[in-house]
Amino acid sequence: MTKDIVTENEIGTVIVDSAIAVHRKLGPGLLETVYEAILAHVLHERGLAIVRQAPVPITYQGIAFDEGFRADMIVEDLVVLELKSVERLAPVHAKQVQTYLRLTGHRLGYLLNFGQALMKDGIVRCVNGLPEERQTNPPPAKAQKRREPRRSSMGLGKTLCMGCRHNFLGAFAALRERRSRCKQRSLTENAHGSACAFSMQNTPQPSLPPRRRAAERPQDLNRVENLPF
């Protein structure tokens, strides 16, 4: 085992990378034993200790079995591998790996199906009480766009300090009250003007003296009358 690889998760990273490289080189459709031999060779070249077809003894209520099952591969006595070469995985396959982990006491296992069209779709990670490692350098958060404050009187009041905001809101309330008074005064003046117009229409107008007839008009002073002498 190399000095740089010390944990199950780091070993798992090497296993996944190696499995993808093998599948990319060979493709799907070969026997499980072929993929097992080639993957074991690749992992061995990367400095990992491999045990193929490892017999695992089990004991049940005092009954011992020297070979309860055979693990396809155990890497560095830390990670259990189960290889498949089928068109599609079944739920029982992942359960099988969980059983292997529980009986062997290992905390990490992988189900690798080389029969998938894409190897990433055929990798199932199984854990048995393995704590997840925390990231020392978390990924930076995405920068959020800064929202500009609304260009309104209420929005401006929210951006001011407490003292300025109090004065601003007081001035704003006084302005609203002044506008309300002006509006009421305008309504009152309109109502008064309407009442005056209505009263003028209903008030009887003084009648002018009737126009005199021509016979009642005074005689023209320039007219000369025949006066007796």
Notable traits:
five-stranded mixed beta sheet, alpha+beta, 2 domains, Trna Endonuclease, Chain: A, domain 1
Q: What integer is the average pLDDT?
A: 78
In the CATH classification, which architecture of the largest domain applies?
3-Layer(aba) Sandwich
Biggest sheet, open or closed, and with what strands and sense? 5 strands, mixed
Structural class from helices and strands?
A: alpha+beta
Strand order of the largest sheet: 1-2-3-4-5
Q: How many discrete domains?
A: 2
Low-confidence stretches: 153-158
Overall, the morphology is rod-shaped
Helix content: 40-55%
Q: Give the radius of gyration.
A: 52 Å
Give the ordered list of helices and strands: HHEEEHEEHH
Q: CA-to-CA gap between the ends?
A: 170 Å
The count of DSSP E runs of length 2 or more, i.e. the number of strands, is 5
Q: Output the CATH class name of the largest domain.
A: Alpha Beta
**Beta-strand percentage?**
15-25%
Q: From the 3D structure, determine the CATH topology of the largest domain.
A: Trna Endonuclease, Chain: A, domain 1
Tell me what you see in this structure:
Helix 1 crosses helix 2 and helix 4 packs antiparallel against helix 5 (162-202). The protein has helices at 8-26, 32-45, 91-104, 153-159, 162-202, and strands at residues 50-60, 63-75, 79-84, 108-113, 123-127. With 229 residues, the chain is of the alpha+beta class. It has a 5-stranded mixed β-sheet.
